[in-house]
Amino acid sequence: MTTVEIFYRYTAPPSDAVALALAGICDVYGIRGIKFNHEERTLRVGYDASRLSAASVTKLVRQAGLEIAEIVALIPPPPPAPKAAAVPAQA
After folding, report:
1. Reported pTM
2. pLDDT tens-digit readout, 69-83
3. Is 29 inside any structural domain?
4. Which of 12, 53, 84, 85 falls 20 to 30 Å from 18 in CA-CA distance?
5. How many domains does the chain have?
6. Which residue segment(s) compose the domain that 21 sits in?
7. Higher-confidence residue: 87 or 54?
8. In whole angstroms, what separates CA 91 from the centre of its chain?
9. CA dihedral angle for residue 7, residue 11, residue 13, residue 14, rounded to 10 degrees
């Protein structure tokens, strides 16, 4: 089992029907759990990557009715490499 988390930022707070539908995705084999942060408008979904892909988890969340604004990277990208200083040409 490979436990992975995917982090979504959503646009509008979920209605009761959407929250109930999202609770239902916990019954899907491979979903480990969901956690809302209403202040930051984020949803974190834990899943077993040996059973589900990120695309299939995203599809489940969208089918539940949550309007996803973006998928947030949990690991920030590395900073850009510093540019090498130009060496002056010698005559």
Report:
1. 0.77
2. 999 877 766 777 777
3. yes
4. 53
5. 1
6. 3-72
7. 54
8. 56
9. -70
Angstrom CA distances, 18 to 6, 56, 79, stand at: 18, 18, 38
Choice between 83 and 5, residue whose per-residue pLDDT is larger: 5
Q: Kindly tell me the burial class for residue 21, based on how many C-beta atoms sit within 10 Å of its own C-beta (0-12, 13-18, 19 or more).
A: middle
| Residue 88, SS3 per DSSP | coil
Q: What pLDDT digit, counting tens, does each position of 13-52 carry?
A: 999 999 999 999 999 999 999 999 999 999 999 999 999 9
Secondary structure class of 84 (helix, strand, coil): coil
Give, in order, the Cα–Cα distances in Å from 41 to each of 12, 35, 55, 68.
8, 11, 20, 10
Please give the helix or strand (H or E) that residue 54 lies within, else none: helix 54-64
